[in-house]
UniProtKB/TrEMBL annotation:
CDD domains: PurM. It comes from the Bacteria. This is Phosphoribosylformylglycinamidine cyclo-ligase. InterPro entries: PurM-like_C_dom (IPR010918), PurM-like_C_sf (IPR036676), PurM-like_N (IPR016188), PurM-like_N_sf (IPR036921), PurM_cligase (IPR004733).
Length: 357
């Protein structure tokens, strides 16, 4: 711009069209890595296109959809100036909500709102989203980056998205298949995942006054590194689990904790007992409890306590399920059982206890 040129009114208000265009150019490389054969065209259009003729091979395809965000974990990424992992949290929150019904996630779209478009930062966020999509076998079909000066500070942003998947109607899993005798197969989380960060931030930064660069021996990392650990993706391992075992239901352990999320797939005809003593709670959860004087009830209500996904499996397939998940790099174990309503509690409920402690 020469000395005689004036910035556009839009630029003067804080919105840069040029920065947005630059961000799109930087992210194209990563979006291209998150494709499926059914994707038509590339990014830059008004809508993403997906060839639905692939669904003609289904007898009765059911479409599944989910929408979610990352929550206040984005503040950790912003404070650490590390932006290429938060996409895993977004993708995990989306696609693993679909897989619990047996659906294969086909594609997703993202939405990034920021106070100021910094092309390299936006591209880093999209890089993480695209890498996670590739790991989950999901196409990143498109998205939107919105610049909101005055609403968000220049270094602030938030991310959200939606995803669509498909499952054959007679392959749908859920509460109606669960029966007495089924076993609870727990799958280890990678940490806090993307839930309960309001509690964690209150404890670590408010009560304990810890800094993000504080090295924490119990964690073997700095506090910031531990808090930014990406959400584990269970999509492809769980789809394989459904195909190769008699898995009757699954639950993605997100906001609300293990018991509340598992109850969402427990019918009124049964009750479930989960034995806490079958796993050791990771140190990050003990630190939240100890530093914040958080009760066990409150901790389990807000955090996953080390279990990111749960499957309810036919007892004859329990060992095979644990072994299969292990082959996919997912630590899994039998953590409880399903019984008739009233045995472990009222119908439709989940009880957590230390049975063998």
């Amino acid at each position: 711009m020469t000395s005689t040129q004036q910035p556009s009114a839009y630029a003067a208000s804080g919105v840069s069209i040029e920065a947005g265009d630059r961000a799109v150019e930087l992210m194209k490389e990563w979006v291209d890595k998150a494709r499926r054969p059914e994707v038509v065209g590339g990014i830059g259009g008004f809508a993403g296109l997906f060839d639905a003729s692939a669904l003609k091979d289904y007898r009765r395809p059911l479409l599944a959809t989910s929408a979610d965000g990352v929550g206040t974990k984005v503040q950790i990424a912003q404070r650490m100036d590390v932006h290429d992992t938060i996409g895993y949290d977004l993708v995990g929150m989306l696609v693993d909500d679909l897989v619990v019904c047996g659906a294969e996630p086909l594609f997703m779209t993202d939405y990034i709102a920021c106070g100021k478009v910094v092309p390299e930062r936006i591209a880093a966020v999209v890089k993480g989203i695209a890498q996670a999509c590739a790991e989950a076998g999901t196409a990143l079909l498109g998205g939107e980056t919105a610049e909101h000066p005055g609403l968000l500070h220049p270094d602030e942003y938030d991310v959200a998205g939606s995803t669509t998947g498909v499952v054959e109607a007679d392959a749908l899993i859920g509460a109606e298949l669960v029966r007495p005798g089924d076993v609870v197969v727990a799958m280890a989380s990678s940490g806090l995942h993307s839930n309960g960060y309001s509690l964690a931030r209150h404890v670590f930064f408010g009560q304990a006054q810890w800094s993000l660069d504080r090295h924490v021996p119990e964690l073997g990392a700095t506090l910031g590194e531990a808090l930014l650990t990406p959400t584990r993706l269970y999509t492809l391992p769980c789809l394989d689990l459904v195909r190769r075992t008699r898995t009757h239901a699954m639950s993605h352990v997100t906001g609300g904790g293990l018991a509340a999320n598992l109850e969402r797939v427990v019918p009124d005809t049964v009750s479930v007992r989960v034995d806490r003593s079958t796993w050791t709670r990771p140190a990050i959860f003990d630190l939240v409890s100890d530093l914040g004087d958080v009760s066990q009830h409150d901790l389990e209500e807000a955090l996953n306590i080390g279990v990111g996904m749960v499957a309810l499996v036919d007892p004859d397939d329990a060992d095979a399920a644990v072994r299969l998940l292990g082959e996919h790099g997912i630590q899994a174990w039998v953590a409880g059982e399903v019984a008739e309503a009233g045995v472990h509690g009222p119908g439709g409920t989940v009880t957590l206890e230390n049975r063998h402690a």
